[in-house]
């Protein structure tokens, strides 16, 4: 590992139900800001179909460690983004500006050598600015296709709710079918492909709420909050130590695998065992959102599917080839929070979607054994 990066404080406490991790308490030290070129160790051949998920879990641990070198203090967010990637889904990140969302996506792309695309959504953004367009070449007397920024492995759709619904909908085919249609010609995207959209939860002026059909295309909605003080001190010192405030550079993280390894991990996630009892538990949770008091719109079948998909990804990340009720519970909030709508009276009273979902998780009985 590149020793020029500052040492990272220990991980923060995990979600409830997981073993505690020590809180950082020792003073932080910051070595020289100079960054040496990163080494690029590439693993050997892809695991065979008969191998366990242990190799994939180790690879994902390496990716997590590399991302954490420039995006520290948000370990659960990193796990959620990784789970979305290997589950073959898309993710919506909601958080205030300046929390490192772009750093997270750039660092993740560099860990497997993926192509990175970014779209800054604005009110005047057109669908062709997202997908691309055809342009007549006078010299060759024919039309040529100019591909848009969606032709990437990781697409960052920054402040997606600042563009009107017509432009937002241009991502629907991309996210669902992994292809783009330009002038009647369907162009497949290079796999793996994941859309990582961001939105600011505070500013509402000049924004356009995402349609329900678009929201449902996101496998998870993740909320980012400010890091703990120890991490914020580390981030401030590390960034300020570099020239022009660029002390943490995502392009200097080490590459630990290839896009083919990510695709292989997606196959392994799909092959993870989901016993009927655990699947039924996921369905009961989704169905409970449709009848719970205070919820105007509950999660559809795609919500239950998302619970199982993310649970499988969590299992692979922990080196297991089967899912447990705890995996379903861990996936519940990010998978369901954007698929339900609270009744107006609950919104007025100050209740939150997460609070209502947590009460549902507390009442739906999990399978034993």
Secondary-structure map:
Blueprint: H1 54-67, H2 75-86, E1 91-94, H3 101-112, E2 116-120, H4 127-131, E3 132-137, E4 142-147, E5 154-158, H5 165-177, E6 179-182, E7 185-188, E8 194-199, H6 212-215, E9 220-223, H7 229-240, H8 259-271, H9 276-291, E10 295-297, H10 301-317, H11 325-336, E11 341-342, H12 344-349, H13 353-363
Parallel strand pairs: 1-8, 1-9, 2-5, 5-8
Antiparallel strand pairs: 3-4, 6-7, 10-11
Helix pairs in contact: 1-3, 2-10, 8-10, 9-10, 9-11, 10-11, 11-13
CATH topology of the domain at 272-369: Helicase, Ruva Protein, domain 3
* Distance between the ends: 41 Å
In CATH terms, the superfamily of the domain at 272-369 is Magnesium chelatase subunit I, C-Terminal domain
How are strands sequenced across the largest beta sheet? 2-5-8-1-9
What fraction strand?
5-15%
Global mean pLDDT: 82
CATH architecture of the domain at 272-369: Orthogonal Bundle
Apparent shape? globular
Name of the CATH first level of the domain at 272-369: Mainly Alpha
Rounded to the nearest angstrom, the radius of gyration is 21 Å
Helix content: 25-40%
Count of DSSP H/I helices: 13
Along the chain, the helix and strand elements come as: HHEHEHEEEHEEEHEHHHEHHEHH
**Number of E strands:** 11
* Unreliable parts: 14-50
- What kind of sheet is the major sheet? 5 strands, parallel
Class derived from helix and strand content: alpha/beta
What does it look like?
There is one protein chain. By secondary structure, the protein is α/β, with parallel strands linked by helices. The chain has a domain at 272-369: Magnesium chelatase subunit I, C-Terminal domain (Helicase, Ruva Protein, domain 3), CATH 1.10.8. The chain contains 13 helices and eleven strands. It has helices spanning 54-67, 75-86, 101-112, 127-131, 165-177, 212-215, 229-240, 259-271, 276-291, 301-317, 325-336, 344-349, 353-363, and strands at residues 91-94, 116-120, 132-137, 142-147, 154-158, 179-182, 185-188, 194-199, 220-223, 295-297, 341-342. The strands form four sheets. The chain has a five-stranded parallel β-sheet with strand order 2-5-8-1-9. α1 (54-67) packs across α3, α9 packs across α10 and α11 runs antiparallel to α13 (353-363). The longest helix has 17 residues, at 301-317. The radius of gyration is 21 Å and the shape is globular.
């Amino acid at each position: 590992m590149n020793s020029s990066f500052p040492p990272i404080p220990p991980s923060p406490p995990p979600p409830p139900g997981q073993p505690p991790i020590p809180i950082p308490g020792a003073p932080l030290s910051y070595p020289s800001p100079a960054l040496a070129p990163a080494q690029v160790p590439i693993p050997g051949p892809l695991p065979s179909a008969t191998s366990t998920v242990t190799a994939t879990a180790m690879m994902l641990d390496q990716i997590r460690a590399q991302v954490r070198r420039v995006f520290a203090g948000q370990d659960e967010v990193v796990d959620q983004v990784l789970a979305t990637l290997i589950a073959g889904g898309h993710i919506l990140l909601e958080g205030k500006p300046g929390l490192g969302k772009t750093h997270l996506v750039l660092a993740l792309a560099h860990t497997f050598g993926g192509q990175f695309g970014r779209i800054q959504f604005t009110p005047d953004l057109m669908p062709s600015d997202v997908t691309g367009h055809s342009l007549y070449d006078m010299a060759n007397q024919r039309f040529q296709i100019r591909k848009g920024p969606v032709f990437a492995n990781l697409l960052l759709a920054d402040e997606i709710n600042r563009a009107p619904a017509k432009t937002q909908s241009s991502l629907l085919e991309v996210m669902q079918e992994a292809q783009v249609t330009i002038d009647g010609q369907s162009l497949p995207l290079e796999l793996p492909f994941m859309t990582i959209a961001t939105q600011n939860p505070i500013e509402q002026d000049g924004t356009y709420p995402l349609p329900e059909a678009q929201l449902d295309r996101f496998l998870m909605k993740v909320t980012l909050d400010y890091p703990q003080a120890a991490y914020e001190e580390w981030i401030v010192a590390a960034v300020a130590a570099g020239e022009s405030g660029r002390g943490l550079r995502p392009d200097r993280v080490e590459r630990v695998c290839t896009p083919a390894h990510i695709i292989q991990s997606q196959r392994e996630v799909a092959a993870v065992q989901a016993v009927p009892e655990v699947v039924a538990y996921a369905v009961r949770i989704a169905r409970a959102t449709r009848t719970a008091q205070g919820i105007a719109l509950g999660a559809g079948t795609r919500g239950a599917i998302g619970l199982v998909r993310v649970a499988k990804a969590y299992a692979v990340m922990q080196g297991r080839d089967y899912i447990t009720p705890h995996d379903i519970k861990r996936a519940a909030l990010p998978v369901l929070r954007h698929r339900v709508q609270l009744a107006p009276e609950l919104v007025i009273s100050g209740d939150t979607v997460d609070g209502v979902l947590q009460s549902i998780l507390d009442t739906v009985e999990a399978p034993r054994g």
